[in-house]
Amino acid sequence: MSDGSVITQRNEMNPDELFQQGLNKQLQGDYLEAIADYTQVIATQPGQAEAYYNNGGLIVSSEPRDYYGAMADFNQVVGINPILSSVYYNRGNARYFLGDYEGAIADFNQAIEIEPDFAESYHGRGNAYLGLQNYNQAIADYQQSIEKNPDLASQIHIDIAKALHNGGVEHYHASNYQGAIANFEQALEWYPDFAPAYSSMGNVYYILGDYEQAIANHDRALELDPHLAAAYHNRGNAHYGLGNNQDAIENYNHALQISPKFAEAYYNRGLVYAHLKNFLQAIADFNQALILNPDDLQAYSQRGLVRETLGQYHQALEDYSQALQKNPTLPSVYSFRGNIRCLLGDYQGAIDDCNQAIKLDPYLAQAYCHRATARRGLGDYQGATQDYTMALKINSNLAEAYYGRGIIYAIMQDFPAAVADNTEAIKLCTEFSPAYCNRGNAHCLLGNENQAMADYNQALQINPDLIEAYYNRASLRYTLKNYEGAVADYTQAIERNPQSAKFYSDRANARFALQDYQAAIEDYTQALAIDSTQGEDWYNLGRSLFMVGELTAALANLSQALQRQPYWASAYMLRADIRRQLKDYHGAIADFQKSADIYYGEGNIQYYQQILELIEEIYVIGSF
Fold first, then answer.
1. Is the pTM of this model over 0.85?
2. pLDDT digits over 14-34, tens only?
3. By C-alpha distance, which of 76, 68, 119 is closest to 97?
4. In angstroms, rounded to a whole number, what is the distance separating the alpha carbons of residues 382 and 403?
5. Domain limits, the chain
């Protein structure tokens, strides 16, 4: 039958017949046709309350749901028959779905007033109170609904569980953790399979530091609902708290498979990767977190810290600045940025940032530490010491402050104080390898060679890549005439930093002491290839060449040394000796005379007279 014939048929029917036809269509599930019939009835018979009532009920039952249209119909019914409880109930539901919880409650109240045993109205009013976060009133209404109609119990138990759960979440956010647990447990008494209650209870136990109990609750939540991304994410947090890093990553992965736009899961997975020193993956996760949530200040800060660890100081500076641009009241980020500026050599900028951090939080010990480092860079050792001391007054367990103050004491040559501060740092952080290294330096300068060696050994046991410990142990071994050990340590330092001229130069000195002159020549040559400004390396290269009989090459290198250090008496002496062997007597005499003059100017009359005697011998040999 065509649409036109259907319309013609409706026009030929009287309102009662049309209403009955609409009712039949409604019972058959043909809602659109039923709505058309009721609409026609309303057009021809505006006082037909039942047509409005049925029409309103249908247009909120079929897609797209038209709650405003339904309310208009229910308003008409109320105007015609103001004592029909069900119409208030239905209008209350329409208002509820439109978010008008107060209006919904007013309608449910009216329905209950007309029909005090109307169980569904209590249920509907409970939903509205739930929407208003009035959880106790919601629960009271749900319980009233069950009392009025026990058949609704199975349906309403879950609503009571939701209300108790939401109340528990409110307690959680107010830091009332025991109250939250009590609510969640009650929710589960009403509905034992309510997965969100287990997950939320897991979150509370996580905050309380009971990570195993947190995991147990998330396990149960996921048994009930394997698609609960938040439970995977939060279980990952608990595993991370226990140090189960791979388990944490697996849980974050599950959360992201379910919810690929879960920004917090990317952020927390990034934290785990950073902890595992998988810095590139950590940065990738922080990047993704920021794509999904560009206002995540923690992601900027943590990415900055990772970039700082990688030596990407300018990028780290950009991250901290971005976080502060979004929120200029973050003291810890000012402190982080101050540290980066210090590493970039911008000591005054670092001090400015740390000043701002301290202004925002006068008890931020880390900011005092970073400002102390900047003051040390500017040579303000007294100010640096005061800042480190202030940091320790705020937090006596801050190993970094003891370590930094120990550096200042060493600079000021108060080596016993340097030993004491580095010892405190080590007590607080037994794996603090730089503190062992610096304590070793202080022991060395106090003449405590055995203690110094033990500290360098311990530093390298903790961190086999600590260049400073290899270099300083090599220098101590050289002083103790353990030249082979020194060569081995300098070699380790060079492997880790092959661009250090100093490392090659000092290894060359040790090889020279071992009379391995050819190896010394190679090292001095490499040192000069990296940095040709060091006169001492030119001199030592010349001396080594002299020892293997390469006199002409030795002469050229000594000349290079004297170009850079023209008042070097011993260099003139050696060059004079080489010239004498090459029978360049005039050149030898000139160099000996220059050497004698320098010694005379230094007040070393003994050397001055000995050199004059050498000059006399040359005059005899050369028959001048």
1. no
2. 778 788 887 888 888 888 887
3. 68
4. 16
5. 465-566, 576-624
